[in-house]
Amino acid sequence: MIRTLLATTALVLSLAACGSPSDPKLNQTGPRPDLPGQDQTLIPPIKISPPGPWNGETPTVPAGFTVTAFASDLKIPRQMLVLPNGDVLVAEGSGGADAPKMRPKDVIAGVIKARGKSKVKGGNRITLLRDANNDGTPEVRTVLVENLNAPYGLAYVDGFLYVAEQDALVRFPFQPGQTGIAAPAQQVTALPSQINHHWTKSLAASADGRLLYVGIGSNSNVGERGMAVEQDRAVVWEIDRLTGAHRTIAEGIRNPTALAIEPTTNLLWSVVNERDELGPQLVPDYLTQVRDGAFYGWPYSYWGKTLDPRVHPQKPEMVARAIAPDYALGSHVAALGLDFARDGGFGGRFATGAFVGMHGSWNRQDPSGYKVVFIPFANGRPAGAPVDFATGFLKDGNARGRPVGVAFDPAKRVLLVADDVSNTVWRIASG
Which domain range does residue 131 map to? Predict the structure, then answer.
């Protein structure tokens, strides 16, 4: 069995290496990305960058900034939250193990993608880091709460810490300054967890704290499991945090991996991972305002009304509703992190805009992503090309790290970046 799997994997890799190359002339960022023709393949192009050591080096940041390891030896750090007192919470974990494979390709792709992951088991916990004097070295590091079910999204509102696990939104009585939680979790509402192909549940609180928003990813690439298992998937929920009552505010948003409130307008934004297997430059992942009542196309169309021919049955009435996202990030960059500069950010060209953590591609021959970018905003809208803010995660064909969550601390003027391959939280500061 093992020999057969290895032989099949080798064959898949050889076939994947024959995929069509990317066209460097295409511009796939911004409000009007270039969309090439569809290139369906039996086996999508696969290029895995296995983990590699940093060997004392750190990510590359713009001139005038410094980067250090804020915390290391974590257990799959995902998303982070900066509390009002400056303490940093890190959700560590991994989920989705119950998602069955549909096709032989899925089995092989799973084996291959595993080569690009950390061998550390997810902690299913939240770690607290306290750096009260802002010298870049936490004087307190402790497990705040453990034995969670794949924690991901985090929010703090009015004496409660909210955690989006893969099957439920829960909360804990909590006050900034605490270094441990003994109280049991209180369920706010169950979250869709059938299959959990995309298990990560993103979370953000409205500016006034009255509402919570949860992003729920699809259960497939383009509905190949059947649409019955996509009930309440590829959506964003709005939840009354006091009662747990919820409503769907956006649909067809394939995998909304991170949510954040834009600070000048108090509007909700998300980064979204789009579909695969249409070629190395389809479909661009994106950053968008989450509009109430919007349908973003999945699985029937992409970037507005561009049809995906693989979906059966087609639903032209849904395509007619589809709207285009606000800002393309590039195809297969796997954006997993989002936060906004606040209170003047870092100043200069990094004063107003969005930081986006890009986990990196696995399904194109020339890797994309594997970095943190800054997208300038003006008047609450994207207003320029993305600027590389943290790079160097790839070296000599190896992934020394893969960015996930990003968290900007306006009081300390630092950006924190969770890296789930080196199991590090990086700290980027100006000066």
Answer: 2-18+40-430
pLDDT single digits (tens) 261-270: 999 999 999 9
- Which two structure tokens, joined as six digits, stand for 311? 């979906």
Give the residue carrying structure tokens 């890296």.
Answer: 419
What values do phi and psi take at 251, rounded to 5? -130, 170
Considering the entire predicted model, what is its pTM?
Answer: 0.94
Q: What is the pLDDT of residues 275-286, one digit of tens each?
A: 999 999 999 999
Paired residues of 428 in beta bridges? 67, 415
Report how many domains make up the chain.
Answer: 1
C-alpha distance from residue 6 to each of 1, 33, 65, 101, 105 (Å): 9, 38, 45, 17, 13
Domain for residue 103, yes or no? yes
Contact of 25 with 281, CB cutoff 8 Å: no
In degrees, rounded to 5, the angle at the alpha carbon of residue 178 between the alpha carbons of residues 173 and 182 is 55
Quick one: which of 13, 36, 22, 41 has its CA closest to 277? 41
pLDDT, tens digit, for every residue of 359-413?
A: 999 888 899 999 999 999 999 999 999 999 999 999 999 999 999 999 999 999 9
Give the angle subtended at the CA of 374 by the CAs of 60 and 44, to the nearest 5°.
80
34 domain residue, yes or no:
no
Other residues' Cβ atoms within 10 Å of the Cβ of residue 286: 27
